[in-house]
Write a structure and sequence with these properties.
The chain is about 5% helix and about 35% strand. The chain is mainly beta.
Length: about 400
């Protein structure tokens, strides 16, 4: 073998070795769960001293921003860390926790994977993890079973405790991820026996126009919505009416009008819902509109979020007319009321005769469409034979 040939073979082997090194890549490490957000930062539960359970969620995402169940090397804990100033340190045990699973829009049950979750109604604290996969306790939409990472906690008062009407308790949630990094966030919970003490705040928003006699429904362009909070930004109110579902406060709705305001359309003529019910067409139901045939993702997130859809009850129509004095919606909860002024049109009931006249310099008025030259700066639209206040 010649020296030249030997050098060529050595060079080829070296290049091949270098090429192999360039093509080889190291698989990235799995993303750790690093971001935690709370479904509520403040929660008020209106109860009767017996069925005082409320619900709150903790949402976990990984470094990539995707929903993610905690792994077998991670944990999530909830701990009472502060209580009303009138109580002693033993008040930490006034609050009981249960890890919940969510099987439908508003259906919950105590988690059954006991190896990785704290006991039901555990005083003062709760946990998910304990060297077992917490995914089994993670809430999942029925339409998106792989969308894990929303963990639910049931929160209630201990029987015979002093938690009712005492003030706010502070709960700290803490996520310890697979790298040992700890993320913490806090929320307050307040238990009251009367809606009048809930700190309720209401706002009303309307879209579209309102016509006398019509059934007020929810569409893409028309809606009436009311938002209920506990007076704190992002805070919510729940009614402790069930151990397996979030108790949704009932709002009262009516229309008022007149120089001396009086009820025109009574509470019985309205539905105010916050159940995650979807409206896809002009139907008398629902608290959110979506053209998607089955928008379960929005249904799950909108249920019990404090934003109510307000529509007419079946078979009823708006009694207000264009002659109603200062008409408005009035929504109440507990000792709180909110109002929203509206404009009401008459339903189209007549046809203009003779033909419409569109006058202006150089205007063509014989037929529609009416046209004006660019030099015309003003024009007048009139309808002959019209009755004042009637819609055409």
């Amino acid at each position: 073998m010649s020296t030249k040939t030997t050098f060529k073979r050595i060079a080829l082997v070296t290049v091949a070795a270098l090429g192999f090194g360039v093509l080889t890549s190291v698989a990235p490490a799995s993303a750790a769960n690093s971001v935690m957000s709370l479904g509520n930062t403040s929660l008020t539960i209106v109860g009767d001293g017996v069925t005082n359970k409320g619900f709150t969620s903790v949402n976990i995402t990984d470094d990539a921003g995707d929903n993610s169940a905690i792994t077998n090397t991670e944990s999530l804990t909830a701990t009472v860390i502060a209580w009303p100033s009138t109580e002693t340190a033993s008040a930490v045990n006034d609050i009981l926790f249960t890890i919940e699973t969510r099987s439908a829009i508003n259906t919950f049950a105590a988690a059954t994977n006991a190896a990785s979750t704290s006991p039901a109604n555990n005083p003062g604290s709760a946990w998910i993890g304990n060297n077992s996969n917490g995914g089994a306790a993670s809430a999942a939409s029925a339409a998106n079973p792989a969308d894990l990472g929303a963990y639910w906690f049931g929160i209630r008062t201990r029987a015979g405790s002093n938690a009712m009407d005492k003030g706010a308790y502070t709960i700290r949630f803490r996520l310890t991820n697979s790298s040992g990094f700890i993320t913490s966030a806090t929320m307050t919970v307040n238990f009251v026996t009367s809606a009048a003490d809930s700190g309720a705040a209401l706002t009303i928003a309307t879209a579209g126009t309102f016509t006398s006699g019509e059934s007020t429904t929810m569409t893409a362009l028309k809606s009436v919505k009311a938002t209920l909070t506990n007076g704190v930004a992002g805070g919510k109110i729940q009614v402790a009416s069930s151990t397996t579902a979030i108790g949704i406060p009932a709002l009262s709705v009516a229309t008022w009008a007149g120089t001396t305001p009086a009820v025109v359309d009574t509470t019985a003529e309205w539905q105010a819902t916050d159940t995650g019910t979807q409206v896809t067409s002009s139907a008398v139901a629902g608290d959110f509109y979506s053209a998607t045939a089955s928008d379960s993702a929005t249904a799950w997130t909108s249920a019990a979020d404090g934003v109510y859809g307000i529509v007419s009850a079946v078979g009823t129509g708006l009694s207000l007319t264009h002659l109603s004095v200062a008409p408005y919606f009035r929504v109440t909860y507990g000792a709180t009321a909110a109002t929203k002024s509206i404009t009401v049109l008459n339903a189209a009931s007549q046809t203009a005769t003779p033909a419409v006249v569109f006058s202006g310099a150089g205007a063509l008025t014989a037929t529609t469409p009416f046209t004006l030259p660019l030099t015309t700066k003003t024009a007048t639209f009139t309808v002959s034979g019209a009755t004042a206040g009637a819609a055409y």
